[in-house]
Prior knowledge:
By secondary structure, the protein is an alpha/beta fold. Helices cover about 30% and strands about 30% of the residues.
Amino acid sequence: MIAPDNAIEIRGLRKRYRGGKGHEALKGIDLDIPRGSFFGLLGPNGAGKSTLINILAGLVNKSEGEVRIWGFDIDRQPRSARANIGVVPQEISFDAFFTPYEALELQAGLYGVPKPERRTMDILAAMGLTDKAHSYARALSGGMKRRLLVAKAMVHSPPILVLDEPTAGVDIELRQQLWEHIEALKSGGVTIMLTTHYLEEAERLCDRIAIIDKGVVVANEPTQTLLQRIDERELVLRLDRSVAGVPEGLRGFQTKTLADNELSVRYSASLHRVDEVLSAVHGAGYGILDLTMREADLEDIFISLTSRK
Ligand code: ADP
Ligand code: MG
């Protein structure tokens, strides 16, 4: 089969939990995860991220909509869909009495991977768990447990790996290691989708970011495009007299009068310099008593796009 352009395609996806308060956890999600991408799904708590991922994992039934995984419809071709995705859920559930080696063999059995095709030791090596292959899982550190979960999700060699909050509660050093392992999978051609609370992490790793809030997609852009919004600056000027119209030289800028003598000027830092703004204001005959500068970051964008205030 020819690899599809999109590893995952989601159309009109809705979810109402039975016994829930009647509100929809997902309200008509449309999302494409391009093949080969490192895709970040961000959103505040309760936004619906885990619901979406658990639908992909086959752990939650959708109420409406269509989902294709590697081109396979999850309703019509559930086995093929399942065979092409590995999911690491948010909740860690573990059988502490198996060794990582045994846990992977068991998982391979569940996925029907024939013995000669199993790559148990290779996968453990890729996740940095060779030394722990035959230790009991309860003896593993938190970071190792997360890596074991990733290893379990990879036993059937799926071309797509989905991780729900993989680094929540994992300390910085282990997080770093986990990312190195995941980036190695990505270099090997695996499409990665993840949710995370750490915006800097998403900014650094993901080539595309979608933000969902209350079950709705509020942004879905290449990370670079999203970061260009961060390029925006807001300069607030306190002038020596009331603002009477926008100064001539600021026609191309986004301006707003905040108070009688306060002017806000927004501009792109890569296109303009502060002194252009200042000379335009001086040129119009104003004196500047005070100024403050604000830079946006991913956090601001996140907050402005989600209704969390
Ligand atoms: P996120 O992972 O973004 O924090 P979730 O998908 O876990 O969000 O939750 C989305 C919404 O669905 C929340 O309002 C949550 O309370 C609700 N929800 C999640 N799981 C269940 C469930 N099993 N039964 C009822 N409501 C649920
Ligand atoms: Mg969640």
